Amino acid sequence: MGMGAPVQSLELGGSDGGAFEEYLDDCRQRVLDEIRAILPDTRRPGGRLYELMLDYPLRGGKALRPALAIATCRALGGHLEAVLRTAAVLELYHNAFLIHDDVEDGSELRRSEQTLHRLHGVPIAVNVGDGMLAASMAPLLENIELVGLGRALRILQVVARMARESAEGQMIELDWVRSADWTPIDRAYLRMIYKKTAWYTFLAPVCAGAIAAGAGAATERTLVRFATPLGIAFQIQDDVLNLSAGPERYGKELLGDLWEGKHTLILIEAVRSASDAERTRAREALAKPRAAKTAEDVAFLSGLIERARAVDYALAVARRHSERAARSFARLARELAPSPHRDFLAGLVAYVVERDR
Amino acid sequence: MGMGAPVQSLELGGSDGGAFEEYLDDCRQRVLDEIRAILPDTRRPGGRLYELMLDYPLRGGKALRPALAIATCRALGGHLEAVLRTAAVLELYHNAFLIHDDVEDGSELRRSEQTLHRLHGVPIAVNVGDGMLAASMAPLLENIELVGLGRALRILQVVARMARESAEGQMIELDWVRSADWTPIDRAYLRMIYKKTAWYTFLAPVCAGAIAAGAGAATERTLVRFATPLGIAFQIQDDVLNLSAGPERYGKELLGDLWEGKHTLILIEAVRSASDAERTRAREALAKPRAAKTAEDVAFLSGLIERARAVDYALAVARRHSERAARSFARLARELAPSPHRDFLAGLVAYVVERDR
């Protein structure tokens, strides 16, 4: 089933091989159409803003977040129409975060192309991100017509918390980078990625999907117990991919986290396992601004990681979290009728720890 | 009456001399207290975000926008409680825009101190601005308890439009700067500042204040006819102050607009009045990135402005708009009982064109 029949697969499903990727692709097409529908006209004054908003989404990201919202809603018996607009808003938020993250991290590549601020300058990139956050508000208010007042307001509350958690998580990470603080322990790292990644990538989509479907509080709680460990496993896997994936698959700069001095479980474990002298040298290398770091610095850090088997350590933590997610899903699945949407949710656990991009 | 009795003046009023500045000061104190009350606890993980959010507001801005919302609501017979939270959110938005604007413009000073990105780096500054937009959502939802569902939703719609108009206006301006396009005519400039400045500084506060007070659509329309020309006069006056105010009053870099190559009515008129050769030289100077501009370039532009009497030209346009605002206010004032809030609104017209900071 190709791009030409997105409606069909979402409505009727199909659980043949490769169904997981097809489900993602189909959701992506629907969500891109919905984003185009909810954004103001590009021909109005200042409308170039809306052209630039479409750049990252059209580069072919996975659209994981909207697919998760759609699958949750549909698996719980909700209609596509009840969740599609919210799913599109989640994808807009995600891409706004990416644009600002790329500015904040000084990143050069996003989805294998130049980052927005490299193409158009930091000023325009910051403003396009702001514009995306602004453009998300009206569709969430218009949700009232689609899902009724109570559900629309609860979805707004979820989005408000999502935005807050993301900014707090980002603040923790930026503070660590800026102060070159390498004392964080695993628990602090896990809390940081819970806020920075898990909330907007997994918790907000499942909560919004459940609300759109009219699910009860107990179901929502089970979904949160599914989404939280999955989000943590997802970010750890992302850290691993940054060190080992081929850039043509990953779409970002390989070893970018080392160049940026980002705090990952891998680096925390490597620094922790090093000798005192090595630890001092590692901290000095990590404290350097990106432009001052040398290939030798990065090679030294890579060596520490290898010797400490820090990637294996991080993967074991990811695995523990994904297993917890699988157990939560097993409890949840008993409440769900068989459907391609339930299959997609079930497939997520394996996807998160096995994905190569 | 000093800082010690802010409640009294807002509740009971007082129309002695200096009442306009006192009204602003009193609103400012109430709004700062409200901002502290609605922001999450600074002691939570990532809570440094909320400390940094308070930096700009505490630097002693005018808090014009919340005062305008409060005065509009109170002049129309509404209660302070109905508008205070919304007023605090408008001030948060304003300061978030300032933080991102300072990043986008590469500005060095804000309210006579270093800009946030100079103090903490661009990454943290971008994220603090994002966090402020995020932190504004929950209080606007909680507004339902204060003003009821219908009014709370209409205020949310006003804030959504405000955020969108601001981003569109900013996009128009950044595109002009980036492309070094000096063809804009007065009408395009006026439309740009309507979006970039007038909407969030004047239209959103009066609309939100009117909604909080439960005013009818006709009153809101008159308020818009008052706020729109006033917002335009305000931005033109700001452009004039950038060229002529003492920096200790203005709190920003003097001649910053020339260094940044910003499009103001003054420069548009100066470039338009220049000879062909001068126009070519002016465009070359304006197209240079800030760091490449020389003091000679800026002196050349200043000379063109002086010879064209472009400041007088801009002031005449501002005056026409403020007179239009005064006529709209006269119509509005007939509906309003005498009160310090009505006096504040009446005083705004003179303030906008006479202010020196």
**Helix-and-strand structural type of chain A:** mainly alpha
State the fourth-level CATH superfamily of chain A: Farnesyl Diphosphate Synthase
With helices defined by DSSP (H or I, 4 residues minimum), what is the helix count of chain A? Answer: 19
Architecture (CATH level 2) name of chain A: Orthogonal Bundle
Measured by DSSP, the beta-strand proportion of chain A falls in: under 5%
Multimeric state: homodimer
Total individual domains of chain A? 1
Measured as a percent range, the helix fraction of chain A is over 70%
Termini distance of chain A? 22 Å
CATH fold-level assignment of chain A: Farnesyl Diphosphate Synthase
DSSP, total strands of chain A: 2
For the record, the CATH class of chain A is Mainly Alpha
Low-confidence stretches of chain A: 1-17
Q: Quick one: biggest sheet of chain A? A: 2 strands, antiparallel
SSE series of chain A: HHHHHHEEHHHHHHHHHHHHH
Q: What form of chain A results from the Cα inertia axes? A: globular
As a whole number of angstroms, the C-alpha radius of gyration of chain A is 20 Å
